[in-house]
Amino acid sequence: MRLGRPQKRHTTFAASAAAAAQSSAALLSRWTTVGRRCHVGPVKHGPEAPQHGVTITEFGAVGDGVTLNTKAFQNAIFYLNSFADKGGAQLFVPAGRWLTGSFSLISHLTLSLDKDAVIIGSPDSFHWPVIDPLPSYGRDSSRNVCIDHCYVTTGDDVIVIKSGWDEYGISFAHPSSNISISNITGETQGGAGIAFGSEMSGGISEVRAEGLHIVNSLHGIRIKTTPGRGGYVKNVYIADVSMDNVSMAIRITGNYGEHPDDRYDRKALPMISNITIKDVVGINIGVAGSKVLAKGLASWNELC
């Protein structure tokens, strides 16, 4: 998946199926800037735009901030799914305030927002149905993601990277990897500006985050895990971060979260290694940092 900003008027979200990088060196060699846009994987020649595109209004959406547009987004993405393997597809959201409940993105989709477009999550919990937990506990991994030039305000983590929950994530064995995050402004009263876990049993690696501005938030940067998760978080680089009015700038917790059931392996210990956090500046910070590790946690190495 790729999120980026094209050269003209809108913010772009796209998905790709390129192979994930296998090391941080490989990761760095794959990030290429095309204009002001992130590019994941080798540089492609020729037009970058997907071959087939529609506008959300073609599916009945109304950007008045009041009309619920969940069905419009769901129907548009369902329609565009047939073009995913035919050069990709693009869904354009024009200027307006677009109220919606949950909808899922697909691979090879570009969700392109006009600079004056705002997608608003419905405050009605009825519009956010509970998903059947099995086997979805293991299936929340992403590869080849670029998130660029976004403003997000939310009640939970602004950006969070996960990879499966306990035995389900270990069994599914799909790591989240090859992820670039840049030029993000985020605000959250209940979470972190950028977080990892606590569901990370399939593994998280090759993450680079730069140019983050976190304001009016509970946490700035957070890593969460607990015994029983298994998996790993490794090769993470976070730099050029500014914070204002954040309760805790950096928090690492090794005993966070619950388990989906009692069938998890208590000997499955997560491994955390090669984490770099640098060039962080903050004002109005409550606590600079906190690290709480669980007894028996397998490994927390090379944290700097």
From TrEMBL:
GO molecular function, one term: polygalacturonase activity
Keywords: Glycosidase, Hydrolase
Record-linked SUPFAM superfamilies: Pectin lyase-like
Stored InterPro entries: GH28_Enzymes, Glyco_hydro_28, PbH1, Pectin_lyas_fold, Pectin_lyase_fold/virulence
SMART domains: PbH1
Pfam family, one: Glyco_hydro_28
Segments crossing the lipid bilayer: none
Gene Ontology biological process terms, A to Z: carbohydrate metabolic process
Annotated family: Belongs to the glycosyl hydrolase 28 family.
Protein name per its UniProtKB record: Polygalacturonase
